[in-house]
Amino acid sequence: MVVQQESKGKVSPPILEMKDISKYFPGVRALSRVNFSLRPGEIHALMGQNGAGKSTLIKIMTGVYHPDGGSIWLDGAKITVESPEHAESLGIATVYQEVNLCPNLSVAENVLLGREPRKGPNIDWKKMYATARQILQEKLELTLDPTAPLGSYSLAIQQMVAIARALCIQSRILILDEPTSSLDDTEVARLFVILRKLKQEGLAILFVTHFLDQVYEISDVITVLRNGEYIGTLPTKDLPKIELISMMVGKDPLDLAATMARGGKKEESSAAASAGVLPEQEFVRAENLGKEGYLKPINLAIQKGEVLGLAGLLGSGRTETAKLLFGAERAGEGTIFYQDEPVTIQHPLDAMMIGMGFCPEDRKTEGLVADLSIRENIILALQAKRGVFRYLPRKTQEVLAEELIKELGIKTPDAERPVRSLSGGNQQKVLLARWLATDPQILILDEPTRGIDVAAKSEILQRILDLKKRGISIVFISSELEEVVAVSDRVAVFRDKKKIGEIRGAQIQEHTIMRLIAQGETEHATETS
Amino acid sequence: MPQKHRRLTEAALFWPLCVLVLLIVVNIFLTRGFLTIEWKDGRFSGIIVDILNRSTYIGIISVGLTLVIATGGIDISVGSVVAISGAMAAYLIGGELILQGSEQILVTRTPMGVAIVMALLVSTVIGLWNGFLVSRLRIQPIVATLVLMVAGRGIAQLITNGQIITIYYKPYYFIGNGTLLGIPFSLYILAFVLGVVVLVTRKTALGLFIEAIGSNRTASRYSGIREERILLWSYAFCSFCAGVSGLLVSSNVKSADGNNAGDLFDLDAILAVVIGGTSLNGGKFNLAGSVLGAIIIQTLTTTIYSIGVPPQVNLVIKSVVVFLVSMIQSENFRSLFRGGSRRLVQLTTRSGI
């Protein structure tokens, strides 16, 4: 009865309400007393950084997870969502990020899979094609050949078909999880036309995306989560971008290491300035580096012994830049220069030969080789650099592994344990050790602090500054702005798969970065030329 | 004590060796003269020698296949390569009996050396093709090699013109029938191939790289391993091994049969690798285990023939034994038993028995 506090002055009552939702996973509090309400005829954006709890909340809504606390109300009645099937029967339809349809089945089969019209024991194909055509035409104003395989259409169309599939179950709530992440601009525009139409028809739409512009273009209301907590719900028009970003990023007190780091940095930069050391010793420079549909062409220079931070929200082009630089992904255009000489980087080994190293964002799928021991994981990159035949003697391997284990403080009884037996923070250190073993000149660290505890985080940050002192250039990527601010000498800011600016020195502050992200294009005013 | 016991049962070759010992024990009781080895006509002979000799066909293939499987792939075209290699060698050696005066003289079409090199070269090229499909075009290994499993039989029959080519050239018989110091020559070949591969994979970084690729291809690439190249040459080498096996088979039976030579070798070789303790998921591999696996399979086959199982049921018997072997090999299956007995103990203690 005390429920309606927040929804004063709203026209329609909420169709779905979630109150005080909590969810715990072993050792993690994924959601803590989160509130959320969705009204018919509104497009509601759910915003938050990685790990904020967006997908957990959606999974509770759709019955994938069951909440550990709180209640869900549908049309004013308390409900329990048992399973995804149950959610569908309640009229809650979901379209996931990756279109999870069957590209080799026909459009009609995809729309009606599991609900095929039947004629006796057989599928009534005629009726199926007719129904599918009708749904696509009426709901989405889309004329497709329902007999054609889905895979023959573009991703955008496939996304529409996924929506059509969601709509034909008489749903009243449509959840779109990152529907635009693989679409280009015209495709997004097309999707939005349809979303507006559906909204007019009274559908309640929940929209999750990392693209700020899209949020402001399409949504009516924004709810922000951070670290599993409910931060607030505001009408989009009353929430300036800069405030939205600060709500998402938060202003948590800096931890010890970050403070230390900042002190250290100032000291050093002033020392460098007074000593008159060449400030611009360009090491690696990328010109017009880009790839169609992956990263818009960028210019980026990495100087000797600096920490270059890449800031931006998830999917803004940070990781993409790192992968193109390292040759993990083949660049479509542009040139990379090493000490002013153009170099071809087609394979990570090419990048390694000019002294690069890369700790990828996703430790499990791109970093660690789970079957191998800690020792083998540590020497892997060095061995690859030496080639197949100059095999490091076992003794050398052991000594090297022992040294790095000790230096980085990797907690393990011995180096022969399988690497998968380590905790997240220690696995991250093994990856770092792998690159330190190669004696790198440039180290690209993509989210090295993700998913590890606070103590390990500050250790990694401290390590980055130590490496810098040794003259190693670091490219540091993190979603945590405070970390970027704490360690970087220069920050390149990314948004929507594009570099939008560069800041340095005293300009490096959280609010400057946030403002850059919010403003978007800055005509490269701050970029050095 | 239990810990020591445990370490023993977890040793890589423990279970395959158990199976082999079991088979031998069964044979000692059922097969007369199983352990007897005689010195006859300047060579050792006996059932065991025969088993070892025959197990070289699958043994050599399984060495190459182990590498492919360790990269997370598979090659099901090896049986067809056996046929192609044999057919190629037989065709090139040819051999016609020509009367020269009163003497019959055999004339080869090409020198034996050339024939052997060509047969192995063709086999390797086939492997490169497989490797190309898998590494560059990223076709699933089973599909990529299925192409040549089917087409290879056709190619072999084209070479033999649909006939079974009989080989008359005597020196060629040595490869599959000859002996050196009384021991079948094919065993030396197997030992040589196994030795070289063990050396190359363990004394260079190749083994580490192959295991890394099989465990996580992306991470290996990001660590700077040229994973495409290693994949390519693993398939090429696997096919080369199948080529060697093809020479042994054709030499042993003194003919080349495009249709039947190497039939089902692919499956036997995969089985040998799996029995030997290399997971089909890729990653860590065990070369000696694979050869042991091949010996187990051959022992089983010979056992079935020698104890006089009627031909119509021998495939069934073989499959039952294979099923049991793979059960014993399965960690999950064994833990089911361990868990089972423990549960039983708990149950009985709780009910106060």
Describe the 3D structure.
The complex is a heterodimer of chains A (about 525) and B (about 350). Chain A is of the alpha/beta class and about 525 residues long. In chain A, about 35% of the residues lie in helices and about 25% in strands. In chain A, the strands form five sheets. Chain A has a six-stranded mixed β-sheet, with helices on both faces. In chain A, strands 18-19-20-15-21-22 form a six-stranded mixed β-sheet, with helices on both faces. A four-stranded antiparallel β-sheet of chain A has the order 2-1-4-5, with helices on one face. In chain A, helix 9 (about 255-275) packs parallel to helix 17 and helix 13 (about 375-385) crosses helix 14. Chain A is globular. Residues about 1-10, about 250-280 and about 525-529 of chain A have low confidence and may be disordered. Chain B has a two-stranded antiparallel ribbon with strand order 1-2. Chain B has a two-stranded antiparallel sheet with strand order 3-4. In chain B, strands 5-8 form a two-stranded antiparallel ribbon. Chain B is about 70% helix and about 5% strand. Chain B has about 350 residues and is mainly α. Chain B contains 15 helices and eight strands. Chains A and B meet through helix 11, helix 12 and helix 13 of A and helix 9 and helix 10 of B.
